[in-house]
Amino acid sequence: MARGGRGMSATGATPNDALNPHGSAWVGANAGAGKTYILVSRLVRLMLDGVAPEKLLCLTYTRAAAAEMQSRLFDLLAEWALLDDAALQAAIVERLGSTADEKTLHAARVLFARALETPGGLRVQTIHGFCESLLKRFPLEAGLSPHFDLMDEQEAQNLQSAIIADLLLGTHSAARTEAMAVLTRALAENDVIALGRQILAQRDAFDSARARENLRILAQAMQLDKGRQADGTLPDPTTVLHQAGQKFLATAKAAMAWYEGGTANDQKQAARLQKWLDAYAKTGAAGAETAWVHLRSVFYTEQGGARQTLYNAPLALKNPELAAAMDSAAEDMARLDEQVKALNNYRLTAALYDFAEALLSLYAAEKNRRAVLDYYDLVAMTDRMLSAQGAAQWVLFKIDNGLEHILVDEAQDTSPAQWRVIKALADAFFDDAGLLGRDGAARTLFAVGDEKQSIFSFQGADPRGFARQGDYFEDVVNAIGGQFARVPMNHSWRSAPQILQAVDLLFTDNAMRQGVTAGAEPMHHIAQRGKAIGHVEIWPAFETPRADDDMAAWQIPEIAEAGGRQKLAHHIAEKIDALLGDPTQNITAGDILVLVRKRDAFVPELSRALKRRQINVAGADRMVLLQQLAVADMLVALDIALNPSDDMAVAIFLRSPLGGLDEDALFSLAHGRKSTLFDALCAAAEKTDNEKLKAAHERLAWLLRQCDFLSPYELLAQFLGAEGGHKLLSARLGPEIDDPLSELLRLALAYEATHAASLQGFVHWLRQGSQDIKRDMEARSGAVRIMTVHGAKGLEAPIVFLPDTCRAVGGSGAEERMQFAETPDGETVPLWRASQALRDSYNAAQVEAARQTALQEEKRLLYVAMTRARDRLYIGGWLPKGRTQAPADSWYAMLSENVDSAAQQALAAGEQPLQKADDEIDALPVNLPDAPHWMRAAPHEKPDGYGFFGNKIFSPSGLADRGDGVAGRGLNDETLRAAAARGRVVHKLLEILPRYESAQRHDAAKAYLTHHLGPDIDHLLHQIMALLNDAELAPLFSDAALAEAPIGGFLTRHDGTKLALSGQIDRHVETNEAVLLVDFKTGTPPEATNGGAYLPQMAAYRALMQAALQNDKPVKCALIWTQNGRIDRLDEAALEATLADILGGTRPLENQ
User: Fold this and answer.
1) Are residues 301 and 200 both part of a single domain?
2) CB 625 within 8 A of CB 743
3) Contact between residue 956 and residue 990 where contact means Cβ atoms under 8 Å apart
4) pLDDT (0 to 100) of residue 408
């Protein structure tokens, strides 16, 4: 139905219309117009109208936005709860534009309590969070396991990598093997992996049911249908080339002598023809593609263009018929070249589809087997559940009963799949039965967004979707006589007039606005801060000189002339230094935001330039974990623990902050050595007086001693803590290491939760993924922020620098091998993206269409970047090497073309002292009372700031005396290795046997031992059965016993410090008489049976258990040696004495 039928679509609506609780609204808000403000206001207006908070659903784009919205809402409601009648009346009028009677005032005061007491809390969620909650609520309806888990990014990437590797290396059907062969002939292994990840990121585009139809549509678009063979298949390129070669063969032979009688250029043509004739005769039909390279060179240049002249004019006069034949052949070759390119690209597209089908089906099957989902699945599975027949109606009925109003934030960044979920929820609002909700009140949908700020197409956002969905919902609301308002918000509360004038000037031209705004109306921003004086500067772009070919080979590049990037970095640093150094400017480092297009070499260049001037710089807003220096240094240290003979790893460690050696010391150690670098380090550590070298050796020796006994997390935590690794890294790299090292520790815990705690396994697992860390950069922390424009979405700063403006469009996507073509019915289908020289006309047209789409997004990205600035905007750039002008499609060229020099002078209104925002001024302390005396008192002296010994958590097993015996790494003797393996088998057997009935244990144990150790197991089997039948230990192998039981707590040392302990007990049980603790040991049993080196460990376990018990039962400890089944019952007096040594400080713990 056309818009404007029975409904009440508001035209010329004002922001107050967006707060109408009885009507739906579609709000288009300029940057800085107050989207969060209007959303919070509508939430409050709905609750004041009597809507229960639990009946509201507000969907946001990020968790940070959801948290910010909840924070603002609760702050507002808390403030209203304390106001008197007059003040509350004024606040409601100002905020909501409506008066309030006594009943409304009372309702406003209790909103805070109502919101706090909402069952399950207010539903202000990301779309992914909401979808996850739906799937948890209706797992069976979604076809999921009721206990499904959500994989983190690292786990998902490892699973994806394993499946792609299997497709590359595994055995498959003939058709799939051929498809993979087609791809691997065109791509290197790393490129296939990258293509697989792109397929997984765009999996919505691949529907196996439509694959055949999509390929038919593409063949038609590529003009291949007319060449189909009798069986309906397309010909092979080799066949087409062979047939064309046969047709041209006679002309080529005749032209040979003709060309040889011409000029030097003609003779080169003869040589090219001869190469083709030789290759064609040698390879025949099978080698037609190889021979084609030579034939193509006759008609095309090395650059790919058609040759302007095939022969010289005098030669043509000698034989006009042959000249005409060559001209005709050139036309044939142009058609042949197009056909061959199209056939090859079609074949690669078909292989791409086959690869995608295999990858997605295997990935889905493996996720189903593990009962896990990845982040993408949350929306996809919810969409599928709500779109399906049958169960979907039940789910929607259950949801619909608890939902009356939906609010959508940042609607311009909502993907089609997310819109389908929202439509499935909201459509029930707008049928004849669903219009009215609570007490006959209308149910509504509210969306706020800005098509000009749609910059997340790589995450599926559709900039046209905001207007398209608005049209759809306006139609359905009008169809049932509901109220619908389209509300423009053109006022900006953020930016000064000069900033907004620069934006409007930039987008004055219709062509410049194409893809930024949907309508033809000029862009217009109204500055709410009309009296503010802004400042916009566009600096000349810095040129990058060509490399000096005369530079000596040994000349250090850093001392050569600086390039444009380095010049701009230093210029910005000098400008910031001058601003901060002028007290009249009222500027702090936290007021400054530098926005870049991507995190390339400019970011560290600028960071270094700022740090040289002692200017604080915040860390990156997003970082790739494995690219962080601190993490790379830690992984090198772990590599050495696994393989000390890796000389490169040892050298990197020694030069890192963890090693601390300089180049000269490393050279002295490495030069002339007779064995590995680690051996040289060990030998030098015994003889040298170099404390740094000794300390580096001791740190590596500690890793080598402990890596077999500690889990990856414990190893990392102790090395960074007690062993001083964090201190060393922080001293050189600064506090920026904290986030990546915290993430490294988190991943170690995540790995141990799902895998055996193997160091080698952890390192391999970690390197299989590409974990990103996103840091919250919203709060100004007294440091200059350097961020990408995407990362800064939703943020603002008084002063913004845009340095990265001379980059051409499309550079970042050149390596991608998948693109999308739009079919006549509006569907998008995947298509192979060929390299430039191999594109047929259709492929080239799609690449150009994608470039235009990317150009439109770049313009929206520039809009977002400029509108982050409150008061000042500084725009600069550096030119590519050898260029004197910025690329025509770069930001710099756009600005130069649309903001002329006269306008630039007007926009540079002067660098007035910075005026802080109202909320910052209000936050300043005024007439504060005197601080209490304890704030000025000196802190009590403590031996440790945290009150914990060593500021770390010890593992009880780490308290054991390692010594240099079998328990360490010295298992070089084959006998000892066999003994250790034997012990591990028995250890595992003791975990398994308690699951069997007593009568079955002997046979089960015999079968297990025979399988793993061979037939000679009678003595060991006898020992194990004696162990299981021991009357005192029998409860340990009953159903009441716990295996691998975690235990932790604190022990207070005699000096008052706390010793934090965390570990796990191999087996323990509480009987009526006592608590039994047993630890299995796989090493070679010592002669002594008193516990020896393991007394400290068992004493710690015993003390923790005694502290946890609610009774006075004795705690008895024992060791079981799995190599021979021997039981060592530990003496309680010896355990007490050992504990006293630990608590009294006579046992050194620092080096454990």
Assistant:
1) no
2) yes
3) no
4) 93
Residue 639: domain span: 627-774
452 and 583 both lie in a single domain: no
- Tell me, yes or no, whether 316 and 213 share the same domain: no
Do both 676 and 806 map to the same domain? no
501 is a domain residue: no
Strand-strand pairing, 405-408 and 372-373: unpaired
**Does residue 568 carry a pLDDT above 50?**
yes
Query: Strand, helix or coil at 215?
Result: helix
pLDDT one-digit tens code per residue, 819-876: 888 877 777 899 999 988 899 999 999 999 989 988 999 999 999 999 999 999 999 9
Domain match, 1013 and 1127 both: yes
Give the type of residue at 793: K
End position of a domain, from candidates 757, 774, 791: 774
Nearest 5°: the CA angle 692, 693, 699 is 90
Mean per-residue pLDDT for 1016-1024? 83
Amino acid of residue 943 = P
Instruction: Write the CB contacts of 266 (distance below 8 Å, at least 6 apart in sequence).
Output: 259, 260, 311, 312, 315
Whether residue 653 sits in one domain with residue 683: yes
E strands present in 708-867: 772-774, 785-788, 797-802, 818-822, 828-832
C-alpha–C-alpha distance, residues 746 and 388, integer Å: 38
Distance CA 1097, CA 1138 (A): 9
Residue 1099 lies in a domain: yes
Q: How far is CA 903 from CA 496, 540, 621, 1053, in A?
A: 16, 15, 34, 73
**Which pairing describes strands 149-150 and 818-822: parallel, antiparallel, or unpaired?**
unpaired
How much is the pLDDT for 901?
A: 86
CATH number of the domain at 746, please.
Answer: 1.10.486.10
Domain of 1068, CATH number, reads: 3.90.320.10
Supply the DSSP symbol for 171: -
Same domain, 762 and 683: yes
Q: Which amino acid makes up residue 367?
A: K
Q: What is the DSSP string of 503-570?
A: HHHHT-SHHHHBTTBSSSSPP--EES-TT---EEEEPPPEEEPPP-TTS-TTS-GGGSPP-HHHHHHH
pTM of model > 0.70: yes
Residue 791 covered by a domain: yes
**Is residue 1011 domain-resident?**
yes
pLDDT recorded at residue 972? 47
Contacts of residue 129, Cβ cutoff 8 Å, sequence gap at least 6: 63, 66
Same domain for 1132 and 985?
Answer: yes
Decide if 675 contacts 750 (C-beta within 8 A): no
Q: How many domains does the chain contain in total?
A: 6
In the sheet that 24-29 helps form, which strands lie side by side, from edge to edge? 8-10, 483-489, 24-29, 444-449, 405-408, 56-60, 124-126
> Edge-to-edge, what's the strand order for the sheet holding 785-788?
535-538, 869-875, 797-802, 592-596, 785-788
Confidence of residue 944 (pLDDT cuts 50, 70, 90): very low
